[in-house]
Amino acid sequence: MNSGSRASKPGETTILTKPFAFSELKARIEALRRRLHLQMIETRLRLGDLEIDLFTRKVSRGEIPIDLQPREFRLLECLMRNAERVVIRTMLLEQVWKFYFDPRTSVVETPISRLRTKINKGFTHHLIHVVRGVRYCMDPDA
Amino acid sequence: MRNLFRTTSFRLTIFTAVLFLVFVIVTFGIYYWIAVSYVYQRIDEEMVWKIQTLTQEYQSGAFDPSDPDLVEPGTYLLLQDASGRFIAKNLPKELDVQRWLSQLLPESIPMNNASKTFRAKAVSLPDGSRMVVASELHDIHVVNEFFGEVFVWILVSIVILSSGCGVLVSTITLRRVGEINLLARDIMNGHLNRRIPLRGTNDEFDRLSMNLNLMLDQIEKLMEQVRRVSIDVAHDLRTPLTRLRQRLEGARRQARCMEDYERAIDNALIQNDEILETFSALLRIAYVGSGVDRQRFEDVSLTDILETIRETYEPIADERKQSLFSTIESGLIVHADKKLLTQMIVNLLENAIRHSPAETQISMSASRTTGGVMMVVADTGPGVPEVERDKIFQPFYRLEPSRTTSGSGLGLSLVSAIADLHDITINLSDNCPGLRVTLFFPTTSTCKR
User: Fold this and answer.
1) Chain A contacts of B411, Cβ < 8 Å?
2) Range of the domain at A99
3) Interchain contact, A105 vs B313, CB within 8 Å
4) CA distance A50 to chain B (A)
5) Is position A19 within any domain?
6) Has residue A49 been placed in a domain?
7) Is there a contact between B346 and A101 if contact means CB atoms under 8 Å apart?
8) pLDDT (tens digit, 9 = 90+) per residue, A49-80?
9) How many domains does chain A have?
10) From its phi and psi, is residue B201 left (phi > 0), alpha (psi between -120 and 50) or beta?
11) What is the ipTM of this complex?
């Protein structure tokens, strides 16, 4: 229900309350470090042959445009920004849905699976990986 | 007995008695003053009449100073002609004649000396003679004695009566307070089900007892809740911990390769997370219940929250072959903690989704109504039997069919805690079929601008 973490303002300070899993702390610290490094305004994010334009909100993979719902776009953006790193379900809930608790239904799983279907349509190489059910990772080389 | 004198009612009675005494003294004083004035007036009238008679007799020459019946006993006379010679004089020795005459008293005055009180009146006659008539104030003594005696008796009876009343009233009070004290001791000794007996008189003691009884009911209810929650927590956590232990034990015995161990550890982690989640939920409920979040309340758009939730849950409902409808009025603002409010609505909606089969229709609506905002989450699922509707908000309470579904049994407890924090009223009713949850946000919580 509650992820054990609370953010007073999304994107500002994240407070992890006890008890928390070490893996969650690690993932969050890495996300924060990346945010510090990537302070400049990026208008394009690229991962392998997948490219998203944050300004025009267009997504394409290998020149083929992909049509995404606004929420799917934000989900993809969040995963792209944390590319090659493990993203925890609760982090996605907070950043994409502004849900500071753990829903009991497949709130994250269903959109992720839809997103994966859309991105993989016509391709054999998977970009979004599911790690042990509740963690996600975008990696072109995996 | 010492206790008796130290009671409030005894002090109050004594205070009243003293007040009554003052009142009696004042009344008595006025009465005495009227009586004495009347006696004085009678004496004065008599003396005036005496002077007039004697003056007439003296002027007509019929005055005989040697007549023994000239004045009555207790009345004295002094007559002096213009040359200063005393014609008649039977004033008692105690009276200072010279002082009297020199002052030529026109009005009667009280005269005091060691043993007797007199009242005298003096007149100057046209030929230069002076006449003084004095009267012993015997009547006044009688009046004084009478009043003095009566006053002492009244004083004594007031003191006795008021003390008696004080003791009586205090005894009655002490007895009832004593009953309450005894019972309080009894309750402290663990008999929490004892109640103060009422007399049905609806007096202040009855009302006090009634309120104390209500307070005891509340305390008993809370203690019962605490006791039950502790038992539930112990029970609900022992089950998954036991299961976890059995699995680990099984892995220890049966695992033959690395993969087996890894699978066992993964399973253990998932179960461990579930246990941690129960703890987090309990802490969250306690935290919300403490009312701390109230300081963070702000005006939030209920419409926006509901739109986000609708958009998020439409695909989830779709996946389960359920349909989600929503009628959300635009521009609904409530004064709340946005995160908690979102969680509350999501919990209710997820309950509808998770505990309903396919083909269920779930609806979510919100609109303005008199005195606030009304929100409804309804489904056409199995519903909740009427007798269980109050209970489902209790921690760990789960309906029989849902025992097997995953979940901590704390979701609705959190909903209830969040609703309490926001002064939101929750009403459960039959949706024919299904469950209909109505939330009412009163104006005080809807907007504080």
Assistant:
1) 1, 104
2) 69-138
3) yes
4) 25
5) no
6) no
7) yes
8) 888 888 888 888 888 888 888 888 999 999 88
9) 1
10) alpha
11) 0.71
